[in-house]
Amino acid sequence: MIKTILIDDEPLARSILKEYLQHYPQIQVVQECNDGFEGVKAVMQHQPDLIFLDIQMPKISGFEMLELIEQPPAVIFTTAFDEYAIKAFENNAVDYLLKPFSLERFDKAIRKWTEQKNTVAEKDNTPALLQTAAQLPQQSRRIVVKIAGRIRIIPVDEVQYLEASDDYVKIHTRDGAFIKNRTMGNFEQVLDAQQFVRCHRSYIVNVQFITRIDPYEKENFLAILKTGDKVPVSKTGYAKLKKVLGL
Length: 247
Description:
Layout: E1 2-7, H1 11-21, E2 27-33, H2 36-46, E3 50-54, H3 62-67, E4 74-79, H4 83-90, E5 96-98, H5 103-116, H6 120-133, E6 142-147, E7 150-155, E8 161-165, E9 168-173, E10 176-180, H7 184-190, E11 196-200, E12 203-206, E13 210-215, E14 221-225, E15 230-233, H8 235-245
Parallel strand pairs: 1-2, 1-3, 3-4, 4-5
Antiparallel strand pairs: 6-7, 8-9, 8-12, 9-10, 11-12, 13-14, 14-15
Helix pairs in contact: 4-6
């Protein structure tokens, strides 16, 4: 039996999916979810083989929900028209259903997933999609993290600086530091370059929190933040900061 979860804030959309899934008795709907918060918990609990996931939902988006799952299942996205999302899908071999979708289009998506099931292509789909989706404009205004099973949404204006931490990035805010499974290069691409500057190989600083920049050693510097924190600044990073700060 193939386990699936329907994650969509529209009851009608979930009803249509259930109706179409009646043609596939081997696929069992183990739970329906109204938002991404419920979706994260349901995926962790049921470990489904496949999920149908809306993108634009209250609280957190479908992309943000997937980022919070360490090993996301196979995904067929359901979405209203979104040119950025469609571009992300087309750059990766992940299927999506554009609302409203017909039974014929639904069948095509199921066939595509069935053919890819348990292949290397399927396993590479979701991570590749998330990397592309993270660069979309609407993903740059906040960062979603999970702490001890709870989901927290951090507006980017509250981020003081980011620090590389092995394969993760540590996000420093006034409420503490939070870990995100994403690369520094990815953050550098998506965050506003006039506000967030890659001042060091391991640091990105929010210039709004800088009070001064002090010399350090061997052409290196320290950015002193309003909080008192000291962020390393390399020679190259110093040139970037001077340009952004108009020094």
